[in-house]
C-alpha cells in the first residue's frame, strides 16, 4: 500500500497532465463533424497503453469508430482481468452554460472541469495509470487486457461484432469497469446493477408545409400540439408509463432488496437543493433511489418544431419531433420495449397527422453478482483504500457492454466507479475531483492484489 | 380603363424588375442581424415613392424600424386615401425547404418566388405603381398618402406612437390596404374582417441544469414532458380552448352571417389535398371558413427543449420552451386574452417546475363595414377589372394597424388584397402570381375613380 502511495506521490503531476491532454480531444461520437478528433483520441489512448507497458496494442477498425486493445499476459495460469472503458464523450451543448470551454480542461477547487472528465476519460485513464504503476513497481499479479471503445455514447453499435470476432483474444475471468458513481467519498459504494435503454426519435407531420397560423390556424392539426398530446399521454396520473405491456417483464424487488437500497444515505432536502427544485417527481409508491435504480422510466431527451429563433413568427409548423428514451430494469428487453413503444406511439396517432418512429439505439439491463470473488476483491480494495466497506447500490445509467459481455463471453462484470452523481455527466460543466482520480489509481492495484489472492 | 391597360402594357417589364429589386432586400424585422438590410429597404421604398411623384417623402425614425411616408395632395377638397403597407418580411426558415433562395427572386410558371413576394412587398408595391400610373396619365382623382412600415411582422410596436404623433399628417377618409388574399382569381373577394393576435413565449424549468437521464431519470420532473402536458391541456376533446373566460367576449355570428361565409366556394377534398392531410382538425361544430375566419384559435408556433442535434443524447433537460399565439375575433381584447393565458398557464404549472410567461406582441381583431362608400368603390373596381362581383369574406390573419387606425384616427379600412391562401405566406417558397400583381395595379386606379365619384 505504501509503495502505491509513494509511486502516485512521485508521479502525481504527470498523471494529471496526461489526463488533461486526453480531455483536450473533442471526441464527440454523436456528431460526424468531430470524426477526425475521435480517431486521434483512439491513437492517443493506444500510445499511452504502449507507454504504460502493454503488449500487442492495436487500434482495431470497426464499421464505426475504432476500439483500442492492449494486453499484458504475465502468466497464462494467473487470473485475467479485462478492463473496459470508452474514449468518446457526449456532445457539450448547451455550450453557453459552460463556465470554461468543455475541451479546455480547467482546474478549480481541486476539480477538473471538462467534457469527459468523469465520463469516461477520467475514469478509464485511472486504469491505464494503475497498470503503469503495477508495471513500474513490478506488482502486477494478474493478466490484464484493455478494451477501450469510441461509441459508448451512441450505443456501442459495433462492439458486438468486435466481441464476437475476438472471443479468444478477449478471454478473461472478469470485466472491470469504472464508468459509474459512488454515493460519496465518505460513503464509498459499488454498483450491482444497471438499467437498460431504448432510445427512439419520433416525427409528427401535419400539413405538407409550414403554414400561416392566421390563414390556416384552427382548420388543420398543429403537429406540435398533437405531439404534445401524444407525449402527455405516455405517463398516467401516478407517473406510470401507459404503454401497454411496458411493465410486464419487470421483476419486482423483495422488501429486503428495497430496504437495502433505501438504507443508503439520502437527504431529500439536500437532493432537491442540489437540483434546484421545490418538489420531486416520480412513479407513485417508490423512493428516489428505487425510482432511479430499480424502476423503468421514460424521458423526453429533446423536442423541437416550428420557429425557435428570436422574436415572433406566426407559423403553423409542418413537423414536430422528439427524442424519447426509456431506461429499462432487469428482465425487460430493449428490443421488445422499443417495439412496444413504436407500436403504441403509432397507434395513438390521430388521423390528421402522420407519425414516423425511428429506433436510435438500445442496451440491456444487468445485475452484477455480489457473491463472486471479483466483487469481494473490489469490496476489500475499497475497504482498504477508503477505510470503509462499500455500500451496494443500483445504478440508473446504462452500459450496454455489460449485458453483451455476459451474453457473448459469459463473463461477469465488476462496476468499480469513482465518479459522483454531482459530476454533471452529460451536462454542462462536467467535472471530476482530482482526489477521486488519484483515489482510483490507488484502489485499482488493490483490486488486482485481492483478486489474485482470492482466486488461489 | 383602356388607358390603364395601355400604361401597364408599356411599363410591364420595368414594374416587375422594380419589385424583384425590392424583394432582394432580406428585410427580416424579427432578426436583429438584418438591421442594416431592413433600413436599406426603407430607403429604397422612399426613393421609389419620390420617383412615382410623391411629395414630402420622409423616412421617419421610430424607436424601432423607420416608417416611410409620402403624399400627393392634389386638392384639399378632394377625398383622401391613406395607403398602408409593410416592407418587412417574415424569417425565411426552414431554409432547406426553399427550392430557390428566399431573397433571390425566381420566376417559375409566371409566379414570383421570394420571401415577401405576396406579404407584403408585392402587394404594397402595386399601390406605388398604380400611383405612378395615375400621375403619369394625369388621372389621380383623390389625395393620396402612403405609410409603409417595417415592423408589421413583429407586432408594429412603434406604429401606435407614430400615428398618435402624426394625426394631422395622416388625416384621411379611408385606409386602403392590400395585405390579404382573395379566394381565387375566378372568385374575387373582399375581406370584411380580420382576427386579432396574442403572441407569447413560455419557459418551463425543471432541474437547475441538464441532467443525465439515467442517473436522475424517474426521480425529477422532465420540463419537456411537463410542457407537453400543459400544452396538451389547452384544447379539450372538441378542440375548444380550455383557458377560463377565453370565449367570454366572442360575438357569435347570426345564421345569416354563417351562411354568407359558407356560401364561398370550398372544396374540402381539394383543401386537404393542397395541405397533404387525410383529415382536417378544428373546433367542433364549425366549418373550415368559420374556423379560420370567425373563431379564435390557439397555436404552438414553436417548441424546443433538450438535445435537438444529431444522434442520441441521454439528457434530462433543464428547460423547455414554446412560442404560443392566439388568433382573436371581434370583441375579444388582445391584452385581456394575453393576461388570461398568462394567468391560466401559470396556474396549471405543477409544483415541481417553474414557469415564465413572456408576452411578445398582440393586435386587436376588426370588422370592416360593407356599407361604406369606400367599400362600394372597392366592389365596383373589382367588378370592373375582374368582370365579377367580389364575395365578402372573413380573413384569419391579423393586421393590428386596422384597429389602431380606427381607435386613433377614427378612419375605417378597406382590405383590397390580391394574394391567395396558397401563396405560402410565412412558409418556404412564398410566391405571388405576376398576373395578380398586374391585376392589382389595374384595379387600384379604378378604386380611386369610384371613391371620388361616390364621394361627390
UniProtKB/TrEMBL annotation, chains A, B:
One of its GO terms (molecular function) is metal ion binding. One of its GO terms (biological process) is proteolysis. Keywords: Hydrolase, Metal-binding, Protease. Gene3D superfamilies: 3.30.70.360, Zn peptidases (3.40.630.10). CDD domains: M20_dipept_like (cd05680). It comes from the Bacteria. The keyword Metal-binding applies. This is Dipeptidase. It comes from Mucilaginibacter limnophilus. The lineage of its organism: Bacteria, Pseudomonadati, Bacteroidota, Sphingobacteriia, Sphingobacteriales.
